[in-house]
């Protein structure tokens, strides 16, 4: 079967890999769609993402959906043909967490995540035609949510988790810095959670247009305009350390900044003085707990992620898909792979 495999920085191939068989309490998902994430792009461009460094070939992809193809021994209450997306996380070792982290399984010290080089051997991902997963990783898609949209339940879950890290956003004015796919989904998640207005800022006009279709009330092109001032609640979704000084200055005194954009794992200069003098609460947001389930429900209730999907490629054109996703001049937002 075919798989999208990164062998090193700039070296992406569509390889033939062995077929898979499900074990007890596992199923095979015939993967239909995958969404290219920023971490996939980082492995492709740099051979690393954050602190995870590529040391061997890795099947990419953790935003996937398809249909149940085969059942492992003893599997019950799952039907072949059911449309499903997949929770990408597997906790390694003792799942117990200290009381202060109760329920925050995304902060378990050892988590294998589909398409991640954080461990050796790496955890192969879902950009493959047939994927073995545990039954408890399945999130069955309801009527009205097809597998193409279902593949975006994972990044929507990331956005919903970020919004929840901010507390109650109802009737609050929000700024989102960065209108890439996660930023645009934070826009949608904030509106879904009851935010009064959402302003989104970026340097790319095409990304701002997508963010507006996802629910942004105001867009700011920071090449020609300044960020708004004194915003009580800000989401930083660009991951650009050079932007942090301006973003922190946009946060109101005593306000909150939620960092959802993935920051680099190496030293980077940033102007952080306003963090202290404005007494800003700076909150990290990492992946999600089970907000992927809430994302599926939100899509079933009408949250529309289709404006985010700007380009579609077949599996054999995965290299071109990565190149388009990496080049903002293409107008790309979420680039989708048809895997089977």
Automatic annotation (TrEMBL):
EC main group: oxidoreductase
PROSITE patterns in the record: ADH_ZINC
A Pfam family: ADH_N
Alphabetical keyword list: Metal-binding, Oxidoreductase, Zinc
Cofactor(s) required, per the database record: Zn(2+)
Family: Belongs to the zinc-containing alcohol dehydrogenase family.
Protein name as it appears in the record: L-idonate 5-dehydrogenase
Organism the protein comes from: Microlunatus antarcticus
Organism lineage: Bacteria, Bacillati, Actinomycetota, Actinomycetes, Propionibacteriales
